[in-house]
Write a structure and sequence with these properties.
There is one protein chain. With 250 residues, the chain is of the alpha/beta class. The chain has a single domain (4-247), classed as Alpha-Beta Barrel (TIM Barrel). The chain has helices at 4-15, 31-44, 61-71, 104-121, 140-145, 155-167, 187-194, 210-219, 228-232, 236-247; strands at 19-24, 48-51, 76-78, 92-98, 124-132, 172-176, 201-204, 223-226. The protein has an eight-stranded parallel beta barrel with strand order 1-2-3-4-5-6-7-8, surrounded by six helices. The protein is globular, with a radius of gyration of 16 Å.
Length: 250
């Protein structure tokens, strides 16, 4: 399939055009709240909508997709916590390899199971090196994945992990402090990774203000993703979008 979403990632990286993604967890929204979030995302010219979570309790993924796709043209990219979170109505899916951990199921095991389904789905597949970084508190993803995050102050581990992911042919790197992180990933770590890899970098977790978003952009993030903070205050969508897109003009 034509790599249209990835191409936009690549062009953003190539031209230093910072992008903003809103992460929607199907378990944490209602039909009304999704519509409100999407309306604000359209007004703010949000670049992408990521959809998924570490653990889905309710079978609402397809309902969320139907509402989003009927309400806007913003590309929807699945951010799946399991093979159950795959739906052909999305535009693309992150094929996540948890390269910061040592759980073989999340390095290749689940990918083997999902491969036939993904092949048939027609979704654009984006191979992604997922790097979990300590954000100050235990997160759902660290518990579910049974892995330890990269220590927040170990830039060398993050750099070597990122380089290995790029050498393995992964198309993007997703550095995440996790949902509800007390602190975002440090600028020094983002900067160190940026200086050692060429692939696009997504950064999320603990980004709760426009200032934190701008700091991550300046350190080298190509795409900023915010989810938990927006669940608490949807007005942040416009504020953070304005801040990130302003960085693209510098």
């Amino acid at each position: 399939m034509e790599q249209t979403v990835y191409h936009s990632f690549f062009e953003a990286r190539k031209n230093n055009r910072k992008k903003f993604a809103v992460l929607i967890d199907p378990d944490k929204v209602s039909s009304d709240s999704i519509i409100n979030t999407v309306d604000l995302a359209v007004k703010a010219e949000v670049d992408y909508l990521f959809l998924g979570g570490s653990l889905l309790v309710n079978d609402t993924l397809e309902v969320c997709l139907d509402i989003i796709k009927s309400s806007c043209d913003i590309p929807v990219i699945l951010f799946p916590g399991s093979t159950m979170q795959v739906n052909a109505k999305a535009d693309a899916v992150f094929l996540l390899s948890l390269i910061s951990g040592r759980n073989p199921e999340l390095l290749i095991g689940q990918h083997v199971i999902a491969a036939p389904m993904l092949k048939q789905s027609g979704l654009e597949i984006i191979s992604t090196g997922y790097m979990l970084v300590n954000g100050g508190v235990p997160t759902t993803v660290s518990y579910i994945s049974n892995t330890n995050p990269i220590p927040a102050d170990k830039n060398d581990i993050a750099v070597c992990t990122a380089m290995a992911g790029e050498m393995l042919g992964l198309k993007i790197l997703y550095m995440d402090a996790g949902s509800g992180a007390q602190q975002p990933i440090r600028s020094s770590m983002i900067k160190a990774v940026r200086e050692n890899v060429n692939v696009p970098i997504i950064v999320g977790g603990g980004i709760t203000t426009p200032e934190k978003a701008m700091e991550s952009c300046r350190a080298g993030a190509d795409i900023i993703v915010v989810g938990n903070a927006i669940e608490k205050d949807t007005s942040l969508i416009i504020k953070i979008a304005n801040a990130i897109h302003a960085q693209a003009m510098i």
